[in-house]
Design brief:
Elements (H helix, E strand, L loop, with lengths): L2 E6 L6 E3 L6 E3 L5 H4 L9 E6 L11 H13 L6 E5 L5 H11 E2 L5 E4 L12 H13 L1 E2 L2 E2 L4 E5 L2 E4 L4 E2 L8 E2 L7 E3 L3 E3 L15 E2 L7 E5 L6 H8 L6 E6 L9 H12 L3 E6 L12 H9 L2 E2 L5 H14 L3 H8 L11
Parallel strand pairs: 1-4, 1-5, 5-7, 7-10, 17-18, 18-19, 19-20
Antiparallel strand pairs: 2-3, 6-16, 8-9, 10-11, 11-14, 12-13, 14-15
Helix pairs in contact: 2-3, 3-8, 5-6
Length: about 350
Amino acid sequence: MTNILVIYTGGTIGMKQHHETGVWQPFNFEQIIEEVPVLKKFGFTIDTLSFDPLIDSSEAQPSFWVKLVQLISDNYTKYDGFVVLHGTDTMSYTASALSFMLENLEKPIILTGSQLPIGMLRTDGMENLVSAIEIAAAKENGHPCVPEVCIFFENQLFRGNRTTKDNAEQFKAFRSANYPALANAGVYIKFNTPVIQYPTQWGKPLKINTHLDNNVAVLKIFPGISQKIMEGILNTNDLRAVILETYGSGNAPTSPWFIHTLKQAIDRGLILVNITQCAAGSVEMDKYETGMALKKAGVLSGHDSTIEAALTKLFLLLGKYKDNQTIKNLWQKNISGEISLI
């Protein structure tokens, strides 16, 4: 018998309109079969757990990720797959964090949600929930079809740490600009097996990483950015790493004061990484003189990482290691499918 655990953390998908007051409120996920009777047709066990209190995804913090990872770990041997219902605003951050915090993962962790409450007539929540559960339960030759942390939304399954929310009004809320979909749901769910990440060796015990260090800042480069602003951010007490959001393929101003300010920060022990502001593409600091100046100063390439993956990856590495050189070495490695290395 296949067993799936649905974890409701909060978010739009779990809302239902009160029949008397008309107020939208969370429904009881312990009665999910009664609320979504079509789930009976699966013919396998679907259990539910709800966070108490529920959280709006805009309130998601590292402590929430730790709680969620611990909950998955505590139930890992009991279930074949997990579906996490989550608000859309920070779903990509949570999916990215889980991909780094769950080591030796061999089971599907499918995050989904909706743009409209599941109790509304035109909701996208019903299809997202049903398909996410079906994907979490899917197996081939005795192994899960997608043993990864993923986001399913609007008929597409993406690797979680490759996603970004880019639309607040359309049902297609997420994109994965630098990595193809892992599956597409039409009449049938078709898995894109060549791009799915499978364990090199099955049977390793799950290991969780719950020590995160969020002493990280994001500095978006823009025309007219001043030295005072940059120094104010780079001189923040206890700061350990900064993500530079640069132009194009990793370019930034080459003014002497700009490069000198970055070089001073790196010499003091700050880790600086370069992420492009573009929706798609990769950082290539050897391509133009402006990017080469950053590389010479000691800025690390973020390759084709999303900002969500870059941030949560730094949280993990800073939490696990104190030595900057170790962190820099691991930063350049593909830990959980988050970057493409040639």
